[in-house]
Amino acid sequence: RNIILNNPRKRNALSLSMLRSLREDLLHDVKSKELRVIIISAEGPVFCSGHDLKELSSEDDVKHHSQVFEICAEVMTLIQKLPVPVIAKVNGLATAAGCQLVASCDIAVASEKSQFATPGVNIGLFCSTPAVALGRSLPRKVALEMLFTGEPLSAQEALMHGLVSKVVPEDKLEEETMKISHKICESSKSVLALGKATFYRQMAQDLDSAYRLTTQVMVDNLTLRDGQEGIEAFIQKRKPIWSH
Predict the structure, then answer these.
(1) What is the Cα–Cα distance from 80 to 136, expressed in whole angstroms?
(2) 3-class SS of residue 107
(3) How do residues 165-199 score in pLDDT, each as one tens digit?
(4) Does 3.30.9.10 match the CATH number of domain 187-236?
(5) Which of 102, 108, 134, 152 could form an SS bridge with 164, CB 3.0 to 4.6 Å?
């Protein structure tokens, strides 16, 4: 499924209405057998500029401000709770909550012209919620330099530090994203769902707990029909026939 941020005149800002739409699109028919991967992209030269600052002015009350940040956090955590991989296809600038969105996705493919920044500090609003995703994707000192200075990372710098998975020329962005998507679609949906959920659970644990969890999950994986089908297909030197 393709989800396209489509408000280029407002730099695809994550307004309350945009966040609600994004949540709805992410959850739409999520249990469908046909849904295998979600790709988030954007129209225009800016992937996403972050929150709509007009919604954060003093004219709106604290309740409205809380709503904006709460739904944003919900959307970012939802991405990692979904049973299918979510890919950010980035072609342009991703700043503040837009950078947070990229960091929250499972995989991110970026064009060479893309840039990533958390410039909130420059307007007196530190990017504390983007820092949650950023600090879990980047080395701490790289994340803090971005947060303290607001200076952008180039696409190559973002790749080097682990914010994105791949950087390609702009004219190859669609091809590379689809290549990854098609490869994902070759695997069992139930196995991928189990693996994704387990990955994020174990990342929050200490080493011993992570191995206890994943040891049990490997055993559970073998009880899945697709777990046994994959092993039998490998032994018989044939392609597996997945249940989904």
Answers:
(1) 13
(2) strand
(3) 999 999 999 999 999 999 999 999 999 999 999 99
(4) no
(5) 108
